# Entry
Amino acid sequence: MTARNRRRPPPGRRLRRHAKPERYAAPVFVAVTLLLAWAGVAHASGSGWVQAVGTIAAGVIAVGMIGPGLAANRLKAVAAACPHDARAGEELLVEMTVKRPLRCTPIWPPGDRVLLEPGAAAPVAFRLPTRGVLRTVSVRLATAAPLGLLWWSVDQVVVLPAPVEVAPRTGAGSSHGREASTDSEGRGRPVPSGSGDPRGVRPYRIGDSRRRVHWRGSAHTGTLMVRESEQQPDVSVRVVADLPDDPEAAERRAEEAMGTVSALLAGGRRVVLETVEEGTRRCAPVSDRRHAGRRLAGAGDNPYGHDAEGRRP
# Structure
């Protein structure tokens, strides 16, 4: 396991590889109490039919308690369809089919439980907490058949019919022409320098290159001035999205890059996005927000490359 994977916290609870009962204390206590009470009545009465009915009741309760555990090990859900694109913070609907009635609870990504019936595919909603490429989901399948006395459940990793590219949320970014803010060391993000014919001078902003300082204008006005050029709309703007190893910092950087690319595309600019995808640096133009979201989904370490226990499925 690499250092990057060790730093990743597990998304949630452990997967149940074998069927286990759920909230069994109350049903077992009630069943044992009823059987003991019936046994006392049968012993006191001495009647054969009372003992026979008690024996039958004990057998039915045993089947109702243990039977779902045997059936739970054979539960299976299959993903029939899902969208190819999604966005962090929204729900992903996956169409699933089953062969017997069961209760399905999404584990990773998390979601709300839903009852599935055999036959037509039914949607299961997963809440996407982060960007990335989602290839599998983890669900908890439970049944109480045939009598509904006790629920047994087992966990399953479901392979999606196609990878889902989850785009990051659209952050504030650093849109074109906006004054850049400073970082922790007092340095500002670079302001787009502009290209083309000279247009005039303007006051210095944090992040401006020193080469653009107009010394004569600065001496005349008493404040630091820089040269400003006409923007060429056909010149591509390169946005570099180098995502760090820390998952939270990488998510914030991806959201900022998404906001920057969206602002530039909305302004009619051509954008070249530079990312590191599967260990290879890629620098290519993006045509729209969906294209940019797919690129950023595959950038850096994949948050969905692990199951609910933080292990690769």
